[in-house]
Specification:
- By secondary structure, the protein is of the alpha+beta class.
- The chain is 24% helix and 30% strand.
- The protein is built from 3 helices and 6 strands, in the order αααββββββ.
- It has a 6-stranded antiparallel β-sheet, with helices on one face.
- The radius of gyration is 13 Å and the shape is globular.
Length: 119
């Protein structure tokens, strides 16, 4: 499996859709239609699409970026902010729909909240 990076549209809240688009190799617009949502996503929105594609996954809370499995959709929080953000971890690389492809996050600014491990 190979991941093709997809950025979320500027000034949008489509990070969840972008992460699914990368994982499923689909256009973000198609994911929005299948999800029936073009704004912020919740865990249930993500799992709904994973189930529709018969992708086995396991949800769990996480506290440390280094403990996240090699293939996972990860919800992260930002120091001092209430909003959250979705990113994709694949083969020890994070595909962040806003920042780009990165090896690691600044652990002082990012707090992992939950993960959906792809089995």
């Amino acid at each position: 499996m190979r991941i093709k990076y997809r950025a979320q549209p500027n000034h949008s809240s489509q990070c969840g859709q972008a992460v699914l688009a990368m994982l499923l190799n689909k256009d973000i617009g198609i994911i929005c239609k299948e999800m029936d949502k073009s704004g912020p996503t919740r865990n249930g929105d993500i799992t709904k699409v994973l189930k529709a594609y018969n992708i086995k996954h396991k949800y769990k809370r996480c506290k440390h970026l280094e403990h996240i499995p090699n293939v996972a959709i990860v919800k992260i929080g930002f120091e001092g902010q209430s909003n959250t953000h979705w990113t994709l971890k694949f083969k020890n690389v994070f595909y962040d729909p806003t920042i780009g492809i990165i090896k690691e996050y600044n652990k002082e600014l990012i707090e992992p909240i939950s993960e959906l491990e792809i089995l």
